[in-house]
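Example for tutorial group B:
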């Protein structure tokens, strides 16, 4: 999820959530401006998105966030939603390039 556009972000989270309900494993990767959605400092703007991400994580969805993008946009690790995992090459690559994985972007 590369965008902080409310509609695009909602589409990505909702589509992913609907596929997860159908039994598909789901990892959401917040990168570029998408990292802003994962910060509690932006809860006023992204309250619905953050609630949806929290609900998905409670159901086993993995949400990764790009550390380089966090630094670029001034997102501090202490401000992240509980449950978000800061990406590392092995963790992020393992999720995105796992055999039989489909990658979609918004």
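The residue assignment follows.
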């Amino acid at each position: 999820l590369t965008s902080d556009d409310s509609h695009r972000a909602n589409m990505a989270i909702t589509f992913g959530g609907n596929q997860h309900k159908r039994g598909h494993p789901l990892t959401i990767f917040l990168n570029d401006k998408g990292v802003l959605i994962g910060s509690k400092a932006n809860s006023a703007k992204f309250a619905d998105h953050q609630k949806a991400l929290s609900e998905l994580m409670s159901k086993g969805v993995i949400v990764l966030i790009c550390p380089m993008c966090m630094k670029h946009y001034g997102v501090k690790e202490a401000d992240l939603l509980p449950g978000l995992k800061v990406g590392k090459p092995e963790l992020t690559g393992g999720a995105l390039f796992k055999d039989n994985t489909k990658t979609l972007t918004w």
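The mean pLDDT is 97. Compare this with the pattern of hydrophobic and polar residues in the output above.
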